[in-house]
Amino acid sequence: MKGRKLLVATRNAGKLREFGAALQRLGIEVVGLETLGDASPVEETGATFLENAKLKAEAFSMRTDLPVLADDSGLEVDALEGRPGVLSARFGGPQLSDVARAKAVLKGLVDVPDEQRTARFQCALAVARGGRTLGTFEGRVEGKVLRELRGKNGFGYDPIFLHPESGRTFAEMSAEEKEAVSHRGRALTALAQALEQGLLS
């Protein structure tokens, strides 16, 4: 796989950095959607993270000769009946910033006691080529939602998600620390193993 390219179908700069760092160690060059002639969005109509990841990977792989990696991931809060879930990137409205979106979740939990603020991050990855999915990979991590934002690193809901084993939010971790325990890190580990075993060869 050394010297190969993989197009990552995301406009999220934070995700692109995480994918790039993880795959660089395998000698894989990650390129973004800006390399496509047609980078128009793919409608995410799936009911699950995995369905959306496959939709994006397959659609974008019809627009390039490169293999395409797509993900769908988000935060599921039990007290909010699993929301924001697959709508994590658009929760509260597409115009909101990451901070505003996190605060919208906190607002919905203002009366929820600490012991009932359980949540998890989920990540689904799909690799496709020529419109066909070659492999899928998933990761999850359990935690709790805090009552305030903590930390300056990461992106999305990282500042409100407490990782119980470390006692820190993902936004209080370095990129390397987060990758070692996060939902996306776990999915990427499974992807890396498949790539090393010749998924794209």
Tally the helices: 5
Cα distance spanning the termini:
7 Å
Helix content: 25-40%
Number of domains: 1
Rg measurement, Å = 17 Å
Low-confidence stretches: none
Q: What's the layout of helices and strands?
A:
Layout: E1 5-8, H1 13-24, E2 29-31, H2 49-61, E3 68-77, H3 98-108, E4 118-129, E5 132-145, E6 161-163, E7 168-169, H4 175-181, H5 183-196
Helix pairs in contact: 1-5, 4-5
Compact description:
The chain is an alpha/beta fold. It has 5 helices and 7 strands, in the order βαβαβαββββαα. The relative contact order is 0.17.
Observed structural traits:
alpha/beta; 24% strand; 201 residues; Maf protein; globular
Plain-language structure description:
This protein is of the alpha/beta class and 201 residues long. The chain has a single domain, classed as Maf protein, CATH 3.90.950.10. Helix content is 28%, strand content 24%. The chain contains 5 helices and 7 strands, in the order E-H-E-H-E-H-E-E-E-E-H-H. Helix 1 packs parallel to helix 5 (183-196) and helix 4 crosses helix 5 (183-196). It is globular, with a radius of gyration of 17 Å. The termini are close together.
